[in-house]
Design a protein that fits this description.
about 30% strand; six-stranded antiparallel beta sheet; single chain; D-amino Acid Aminotransferase, Chain A, domain 1; globular; about 280 residues; EC 2.6.1.21; 2 domains; 8 helices; binds N-(5'-phosphopyridoxyl)-D-alanine; D-amino Acid Aminotransferase, Chain A, domain 2; alpha+beta
């Protein structure tokens, strides 16, 4: 496989980083995951915009323009003869320098990106998944797509150990998002989700959902919802670049409504499929 590092293309095995890499030692960096369908990116511009916003928020300067990066990422698909469904992983760190919490001086940022095959999870999309609820132990700046994913990793692992696909995170009962996706509740025909404050990642798919609900005239309430609201929900679903629009049919071992993907969830799945096609 060919990867992109800074603005160069190289074989994956040729990528070496010094042991004093700030991404490794401090999690001092940001990242993106972009969906690929039939060898083409979906929502690439949105992801690149967010990458630059995340980088700016933690004061990492990119030396490439958005345009140059976009072109390089498209070349990456060509270099790998990509034609199927997959994902791009892109990571940007504050570079490699002798270990010091303080930013290094005159050290260029490190960037690399690679693609991998990733088939759509048809079973999850059609039958739905189960989730646990867990305390959101993350910091105040979750809108930054930071490499510091330890609370997310621990939450998702706990979900897995309970036979679940995702962890629904809450702060004092107020639902923020999931460990690696945004989450929505449907009650009486209205969709409820957390507002795009600094407390959640502003999902690129979430952004599309806002457009779909507009097109479909589905009421969209961004005041959020609580853990208690979940037990009376008509529908629950999550979104992310890798999970698309996935129904949640069980939370903490309790079934949501009739335990089947709901009507509005299915409408949004259809809108997503049409948009991504
Ligand atoms: N995660 N919230 C969190 C905490 C996430 O990590 C993600 C994405 C999302 C959804 O964002 P988007 O719609 O832009 O994919 C929400 C990616 C897929 C990951 O870390 O693998």
């Amino acid at each position: 496989p060919i990867i992109l590092t800074q603005s160069r293309f190289t074989h994956r095995d040729e990528l070496t980083y010094p042991y004093e890499e700030r991404g490794l030692q401090f999690g001092d960096g940001v990242y993106e995951v972009v969906r690929i369908y039939n060898g083409a990116y979906y929502l690439l511009e949105e992801h690149i915009d967010r990458l630059y916003r995340s980088a700016e928020a933690i004061k990492i300067e990119l030396t490439v323009s958005k345009e140059e990066l976009t072109n390089n990422l498209i070349k990456l698909l060509v270099q790998n003869d990509m034609t199927v469904d997959g994902k791009l992983y892109l990571q940007l760190t504050r570079g490699s320098a002798p270990r010091d919490h303080v930013f290094p001086v005159d050290t260029p940022a490190n960037m690399y990106a690679y693609i991998q095959d990733l088939p759509r999870n048809i079973k999850n999309l059609e039958t739905g998944v189960s989730a646990t609820t867990e305390h959101d132990a993350r910091w105040d700046y979750c809108y930054i797509k930071s490499l510091n994913l330890l609370p997310n990793v621990l939450a998702k692992q706990t979900a897995k150990e309970n036979g679940c696909y995702e962890a629904i995170l809450h702060k004092d009962g107020f639902v923020t998002e999931c460990s690696a996706s945004n989450v929505y509740l449907v009650k009486n025909g209205t969709i409820y989700t957390h507002p795009t404050t600094t407390k959640i990642l502003h999902g690129c798919v979430r952004m599309r959902i806002e457009k779909f609900v507009d097109d479909l005239a589905i009421p969209f309430n961004e005041e959020g919802f609580t853990i208690e609201d979940i037990s009376n929900a008509d529908e629950l679903f999550l979104t992310s670049s890798t999970s698309e629009v996935t129904p949640i049919i069980k939370v903490d071992n309790k079934q949501i409504a009739d335990g089947k993907p709901g009507k509005i969830t299915k409408q949004l799945q259809k809108a997503y499929e049409e948009d991504a096609a």
